[in-house]
Amino acid sequence: MSTLDCTPTQSILKKKKTINHPFKDEDPTQYLMALKEEREVLNETEEKYQYETLHDFITGEKSFCSLQSKKTSTQKRAQKKRTRSYLTCFHCGKTFKQQESLNKHMRFHTGEKPNTCFRCGQSFSEKEHLKVHMKTHYGEKDFSCYRCGKTFSQSGNIKLHMNIHTGEKPFTCKDCGKGFNQKGSLNYHIKVHTRKKPFICPLCRKFFKREQNLKVHMKVHTEEKPFTCPQCEKSFRQKQYLNAHMRRIHTG
């Protein structure tokens, strides 16, 4: 019994693009005739494919080509399943698809526990089990400062805290050069620059929006009091303080 050609149409169409006729450049007439014959073959194959597809849809039956294609696909899957290699545990015979899964399983037989809790030293065979265990330590403060006794939950936090005692200021403002012992203090300080206060007191590094405000502030450091009460000769650094004094004390 002759077998039908069930090759998908798309593959034939792809082949059409790659055909190189030897007389393409020599005899245009023969080239055109060859193309015509090839097109007729392709059209016949396409019509047969469309007819079988429509037949399957209307009748609900499967044509010979469809059944052959399905049979071939099923056989390939069965063959692939039979030839698939599995990794077997020599202790209990359990099989695994991946080497990593087998390695994890082997720990149940060997008792190996490579995942250790850095807080209490308890070990676990699986990393996931360690993560669950670590939740029991949340909130604990095992790291204590030997100088002031303050406790911390993480070793990194106590290292930053020690800068307070040693006077070390590793965090420096790139705008004004002022140093800080903690990064949080530096971040808070940076907000001073983002508020657009360009006038800085050279003594206390306080920032001001206006130059006049800086001049008034400088009197705090110089103890200058240029505003004097004409009645009691009490002096004030700012005029507004003098005015308030006059209203409260001398106006009755």
TrEMBL record:
Which SUPFAM superfamilies does the annotation name? beta-beta-alpha zinc fingers (SSF57667)
Among InterPro entries, the record links this protein to:
Zinc_finger, Znf_C2H2_sf, Znf_C2H2_type
Q: Which top-level group of life is the source organism from?
A: Eukaryota
* Cellular-component GO terms for this entry: nucleus
**What GO MF annotations does this protein's record show?**
DNA binding; zinc ion binding
The protein's UniProt keywords, in alphabetical order, are:
DNA-binding, Metal-binding, Nucleus, Repeat, Transcription, Transcription regulation, Zinc, Zinc-finger
Q: Which residues form the C2H2-type domain?
A: 87-114, 115-142, 143-170, 171-198, 199-226, 227-252
**Which residue windows are coiled coil?**
none
> Where mainly located?
nucleus
**Which PROSITE patterns does the entry mention?**
ZINC_FINGER_C2H2_1 (PS00028), ZINC_FINGER_C2H2_2 (PS50157)
Its localization reads: Nucleus
Against Pfam families, the record matches this protein to: zf-C2H2
Its GO biological process annotations read: regulation of gene expression
Q: What does this protein do?
A: May be involved in transcriptional regulation.
Q: What's the family?
A: Belongs to the krueppel C2H2-type zinc-finger protein family.
Q: What is this protein called?
A: C2H2-type domain-containing protein
According to its UniProt entry, this protein's organism is Cyprinus carpio carpio
